[in-house]
Design brief:
The structure holds 2 protein chains of 2 kinds.
Chain A lengths: L1 E4 L1 H7 L3 E3 L9 H9 L3 H6 L7 E4 L2 E3 L10 E5 L6
Parallel strand pairs in A: 1-5
Antiparallel strand pairs in A: 1-2, 3-4, 3-5
Chain B lengths: L5 E5 L5 H9 L7 E8 L3 E2 L2 E10 L3 H16 L2 E9 L1 E3 L4 E9 L2 H18 L2 E7 L2 E4 L4 H8 L5
Helix pairs in contact in B: 2-3, 3-4
Classes of the chains: A alpha+beta, B alpha+beta.
Chain lengths: ~80, ~160
């Protein structure tokens, strides 16, 4: 699946998007955050406060307990500050 | 009667007067237009700001604005609706966003414009990065923006 990062999450990780293949045990958005956090220091830094991180699956806002099976694109970003 | 909202995300600036004219010219079913403009301030907490850079999530940003525009059109009898949000670098005094809500009477137009701004602030995937003498920093979301959006779900 494709993973996208925005704003300071993107800056901390250092890439704006990538393809990942998490193991089957990674079932929810929260699981994916935990799994990504283990990929290196930059990820651990970006996700150090998981409660602050917002997520979207295929352009729709989702909660941390949302299942990720079937997702084409998952995005992680800070709370929004547009308008 | 169904109307189609005009939704644009763009780097270039826009002219609010021209956008209002585009919405109302030739129409006789519009009795009220409420225009909200969000404009880049020149200072924050007493510190001068050189510019804001707006990042967005292409695809989702358009989808979220459309979702909320559709919701506004289903809740109020609107006869026109325009939402334009800029991205990229914006300097103090320039436009960031405009919402134009048109209706036969003012109440629907006022309420729809306020609803849309509250929802866009809390849910549309845009992020502001501020340039000042100290360097650049991402603006933090404000709790009262979430509270402002939540009040529309109570009634």
């Amino acid at each position: 699946m494709k993973v996208k990062y925005f704003a300071w999450v993107r800056e901390r990780i250092g890439v704006s998007e990538e393809s990942v293949e998490p193991p089957a045990s990674v079932r929810t958005v929260a699981d994916l955050i935990g799994w990504l956090s283990g990929r290196g220091e930059t990820y651990a830094y970006a996700f150090e406060k998981p409660k602050v991180i917002r997520a979207a699956i295929d352009h729709t806002h989702v909660k941390p307990d949302a299942p990720i099976s079937g997702a084409r694109e998952i995005a992680f970003f800070p709370p929004m500050t547009g308008g | 009667m169904s109307i189609t909202a005009t939704i644009r995300i763009q780097e270039s600036d826009f002219d609010v007067g021209q956008e209002i004219a585009a919405l109302t010219t030739g129409r006789t079913d519009i009795g009220a237009v409420v225009s909200f403009s969000g404009i880049c301030r020149g200072s924050e907490n007493g510190e001068p700001i050189a510019a804001l850079t707006l990042e967005h999530y292409p695809g989702m940003a358009e989808a979220e604005i459309k979702r909320h525009a559709d919701e506004a059109m289903s809740r109020w009898p609107l006869t026109g609706l325009t939402v334009i949000h800029r991205v990229g670098r914006i300097t103090p005094g320039e436009n960031i966003v405009v919402v134009l809500a048109a209706s036969r009477h003012r109440q629907a137009a006022f309420q729809a414009a306020e609803f849309l701004m509250d929802y866009l602030k809390a849910n549309a995937p845009f992020w502001k990065c501020e340039e000042s003498r100290k360097g650049t920093s991402w603006i933090e979301a404000r709790d009262h923006d979430d509270a402002a959006a939540a009040r529309w779900t109570k009634s």
